[in-house]
Amino acid sequence: MHNTFRLPHFQPSHLPCRSFVPRCVDVAWNTLMRKGPKYDGNFLHKKIKDLVGDTKLADTLSNVVMPAFDVKRMQPILFNTLEAEREAHKNAYLADVCLATSAAPTFLPARSFCTWDSGGEPHEFQLIDGGVAANNPTMVAMSLLTKEMLRLRRQLDDDRKLPLVQGDDGGVAGNNNNNPTTAAMKALIDTGKAEAGVEPSVYRNILVISIGTGVAKETNMYTAEKCNKWNLLDWVSNNGFNPLIDFLSYASADLVDIQAAVLFEVLSCCKENYLRIQTDELMEDAASVDRATEKNMEELIKFGNKLLKDQVTRVNIETGVYEPVKPGYTNEMALKDFAGKLCKERKLRQTAHE
């Protein structure tokens, strides 16, 4: 896959390498005082536009969820296919959403655009990277599916067929009749009621593969004593690291992992339905956000192949420690098992429609 897509679409000249200039203090000061993002984003804009064209969220072949953060409203925005199919003002151009969800503060420019509802009223968005609100977006996807399941249950139980979330349908059927995920949810609800007389567990019928981008998690670097000696700038930039940002991002990502594990293990007794693949062993260039040299990209691919051979680990919800699931069971094996489950599900759906 990387030979046909990822590598041909990057250009190192647009993402300058890390500088090892001796004047570290001057470089750090200039970085802190610089106004505007590090990159203008023009190359990324053109590349995304070339790839997705005028495709809108409702036109995606799969159901997608793309978080962003609205700096004007001070709240996260969850762009997704399911709602875009029902509500016109949520059916944004995919290129706009991609640029918004990738607009990492200090690196790329924020993205603003407007959409219109079925009545012609404009809806303005002023957005930055969704990682600000959801650095690990696993719970975002799970909550959206749960919300959709609740909406469908309400519809199927209501003679008036009123949706749980009111809004303009934008000319698209409010029930998402052509969406396979919605159709599967409806069948699941009907089957559960007919066979058991009770509502089926939402999480028992969800498979989640959560793949992290890797971090350089430098444990034992900081102590309370060290923190007490920092001034304002030290919290933001300290010996080449960003302590405050690291604390926030690591904490939110790990907390989501623990929450997801709890939901699958405690509420649904199906902890095998959740697979988290992540590493905290990236070093130096490999952990850089914008080190887009061909050499570094190849190194990341090698690291990814190695990660496939690593054992599957799962967080212990009592201790927070990641432990091997079982000896010899690798991430590659787990992915194949998930693929097998999905193939089986697809065949069952096809058989049901024959």
List keywords for this structure.
Patatin; globular; two-stranded parallel sheet; Cytosolic phospholipase A2 catalytic domain; 8 strands; lipid metabolism; 354 residues; alpha+beta; plant defense
Description:
It is a single chain. This protein is of the alpha+beta class and 354 residues long. Among the domains are: 42-133, no CATH class; 202-353, Cytosolic phospholipase A2 catalytic domain (3-Layer(aba) Sandwich), CATH 3.40.1090.10. The chain is 42% helix and 11% strand. The chain is built from twelve helices and eight strands. It has helices at residues 2-6, 24-33, 42-52, 81-84, 94-101, 138-157, 180-196, 224-227, 232-236, 243-267, 294-309, 331-353, and strands at residues 65-70, 75-80, 111-116, 122-129, 208-211, 274-277, 313-315, 322-324. The strands form three sheets. It has a four-stranded antiparallel beta sheet with strand order 2-1-4-3. α6 packs across α7. The longest helix has 25 residues, at 243-267. The radius of gyration is 23 Å and the shape is globular. 20% of the residues are buried. Mean pLDDT is 80; it is low at 13-27, 159-173 and 194-200. Keywords: Hydrolase, Lipid degradation, Lipid metabolism, Plant defense. A motif (DGA/G) lies at residues 129-131. Residues 1-142 form the PNPLA domain. GO terms for molecular function: monoacylglycerol lipase activity; phospholipase activity. Lipolytic acyl hydrolase (LAH). Possesses non-specific lipolytic acyl hydrolase (LAH) activity. Hydrolyzes phospholipids as well as galactolipids. May play a role in disease resistance.
